[in-house]
From TrEMBL:
This is Ig-like domain-containing protein. InterPro entries: Ig-like_dom (IPR007110), Ig-like_dom_sf (IPR036179), Ig-like_fold (IPR013783), Ig_sub (IPR003599), Ig_V-set (IPR013106). One of its GO terms (cellular component) is membrane raft. Residues 32-107, 119-224, 250-346, 359-466 form the Ig-like domain. It comes from the Eukaryota. One of its GO terms (biological process) is interleukin-15-mediated signaling pathway. One of its GO terms (molecular function) is MHC class II protein binding.
């Protein structure tokens, strides 16, 4: 089984356990719209609520926050004024906000012992906002509908597995679709957002559009948006701008430092998702054994210890992406949208490291992220790019944008800012989401075109994200061209190898033919035919002649060669003919060895061999 299959299987197992419960107690999923009141049931409650404790988790890495402890409401949380405990031990929350989404657990304690199993409630919050504060006829408006859910699995996976759907309906309940020419409906699964864009008409005053969420074709909750034209009513709808991802050097332009209340500089770091970041510890001592790094995701979340006295904690999901620098800075690899928040660097001194040395160094991490409404990109298709700045919310995004002059905007590849006056683009923003969107219809020449989302603070670029158009049709043609080129290269290489082999074979053949011709030319075949026996016999007789007959003249005695080689070549067409000496071999070598010139007294020095 491949790694991908294993990951998918684990995801399905986890999702199944999430939706059906592991402990044996049913897990409840509650869908609610922002601004309403909700009641979360405690399915394991005992006879009274003195044994009941309610805990809250905002997201995977957040620590548990105790809201109700043994029937008593905790007052050290920001939302405590909106909380109450029902007579059946249920948890009641008034005026739900999008920050209330998450995972609530009802636990029972009896005589100091925790009883199993817990009752779990997952709260999903649906929220709608508008891109415009001033509403009037002729104005283009974009409505953002977002489902905030606890993320043990991605929104996209959960939508597919549980058949969760987000859609817009008109005031008669008819579902609006992309085929309707008046509306542009776009969605982004990784944000769990669906947007509705339209140009308002005079008759749209008091018109309603409703965003609904369904699970397995059953409506769970909905939010209605009513058009209130500014010209006809004093009622207005609030709106806020947004931004997207690609960062500068984290130690320079994307870092903003302000003087904190505690006397220690508070640092604001802007980074894009997918990059690495370094968070400085401005109060570090001579070594890092006294350094502790803590994290808070949002107001109500409990503190999570990431580094304790110089040692990395391994009980957090992100621990593999964390490291402590030699200067006690906190390094985070492959930043995700879940990493935004407040990071605090603390110093602990004393023999047992039990004395907290104040003040702390605080770092606010803001993450810029861009996503697209489409996975398949091609000319003629309408595409919406979502650029969102994720920020720690000590104040609202709108207030922070106003006070710190934070701006989100889109620029083209020439660096020119795109505005609403450009007829080709529709730019919309939503301040309570800190999102800015870019909608356009793609052209053929848009392949490899870049649009960049930038975030600025006091007119200084802090980080940016570039989106490059990759047309599916162009990508396919590029792939086909590459395949053709590979085939041509393979064919050409094969032809060259075959040609080389042919040339080599011809060279070898030519060389062998030359050798045969040289052998045939050394002896005339016609003179050899029929004289084979006589030739061999005469030569053999000369080899076996008496020593006396081999004496040479004095002039010949001057030669000092000890060995003489004689080549005897025999060629016969008629091998069956009997000869005095059988000379079947084509080549015969004879060697004669003798003594020095002069009379031979020792005939043993003379020898002959025939091969």
């Amino acid at each position: 089984m491949s790694d991908e299959c294993r990951v998918c299987l684990l995801g399905l197992i986890f999702l199944s356990s999430l939706l059906t419960g592991i402990s044996g107690v049913d897990e409840t999923h509650v869908f609610i719209s922002s601004g309403e009141n909700v009641r979360l049931s405690c399915n394991n409650a005992l006879h009274d609520c003195n044994s009941t404790t309610w805990n809250y988790n905002g997201f995977i890495d957040s620590a548990t926050v105790e809201l109700i402890g043994l029937g008593i409401k905790k007052k050290d949380t920001e939302r405590h004024e909106r909380l109450s405990l029902g007579s059946d031990c249920s948890l009641n929350i008034r005026n739900i906000s999008k920050e209330d989404y998450g995972y609530y657990t009802c636990q029972q304690y009896l005589n100091g012992q925790r009883l199993k199993a817990d009752a779990r409630v997952f709260l999903h919050v649906l929220h709608v906002s508008s891109s415009q504060t001033e509403i009037s006829a002729g104005l283009s408006v974009t409505l953002f509908c977002q489902l905030y859910s606890y993320p043990p699995v991605s929104c996209d996976d959960w939508i597919r597995s549980e058949r969760i759907q987000l859609f817009w309906v008109n005031q008669t309940g008819v579902k609006l679709t992309r085929s309707d020419s008046r509306y542009q409906i776009l969605s982004s699964s990784d944000h769990c957002i669906i947007t509705l864009n339209t140009t308002l008409l005079n008759e749209d005053h008091n018109r309603e559009w409703r965003c609904e969420v369904t699970q397995r074709d059953q409506v769970k909750t909905s939010v209605t948006y009513t058009v209130k034209s500014s010209a006809q009513s004093d009622s207005t709808t609030s709106v806020i701008p947004v931004h997207n991802t690609h960062s500068q050097d984290p130690s320079t332009t994307n870092t903003h430092t302000t003087k904190g209340i505690s006397g220690v500089d508070e640092t604001h770091v802007f980074i894009s998702s997918g990059e690495n970041v370094r968070l400085s510890c401005n109060n570090a001592l001579h070594d890092c054994t006294s350094t502790t790094w803590n994290y808070n995701g949002f107001r109500d979340s409990a503190t999570v210890e990431l580094i304790g006295l110089g040692i990395k904690k391994k009980d957090t999901e992100r621990h593999e992406r964390l490291s402590l620098g030699s200067d006690c800075s906190l390094n985070i690899r492959n930043i995700s949208t879940e990493d935004y928040g407040l990071y605090s660097c603390q110093q602990w001194t004393g023999v047992n490291r039990d004395k907290h040395q104040k003040p702390n160094a605080r770092v606010y991490l803001h993450v810029l992220h861009v996503s697209s409404s489409q996975t398949e990109i091609s000319a003629g298709l309408s595409v919406t790019l979502f650029c969102q700045l994720y920020s720690y919310p000590p104040v609202s995004c709108d207030d922070w944008i106003g006070s710190e002059r934070i701006q989100l905007f889109w620029v083209n590849q020439a660096g020119v800012k795109l505005t609403r006056s450009d007829s080709r683009y529709q730019i919309s923003s939503s301040s309570d989401h800190c999102i800015i969107t870019l909608n356009t219809t793609l052209l053929n020449e848009d392949h490899n075109r870049e649009w960049r989302c930038e975030v600025t603070q006091r007119d200084q670029v802090k980080t940016s994200v570039t989106y490059t158009v990759k047309s599916s049709a162009q990508a396919d043609s590029t792939t086909a061209l590459t395949s053709t080129e590979v085939i041509v290269i393979v064919v050409c290489a094969s032809f060259v190898l075959l040609l080389l082999a042919l040339i080599l074979w011809m060279m070898i053949r030519k060389k062998r033919s030359g050798v045969r011709r040289a052998t045939d030319d050394s002896v005339d075949p016609s003179s050899r035919a029929g004289t084979n026996s006589l030739f061999c016999e005469s030569n053999l007789e000369s080899l076996h002649s008496s020593p006396e007959s081999r004496q040479t003249s004095p002039s010949q005695a001057e030669q000092t060669d000890d060995v003489t080689y004689t080549e005897v070549t025999a060629f016969s067409k008629n091998r069956a003919k009997k000869n005095k000496v059988h000379c079947d071999d084509k080549v015969t070598y004879a060697s004669i060895g003798g003594a020095k010139a002069g009379a031979l007294e020792d005939y043993s020095q003379l020898y002959a061999s025939v091969n």
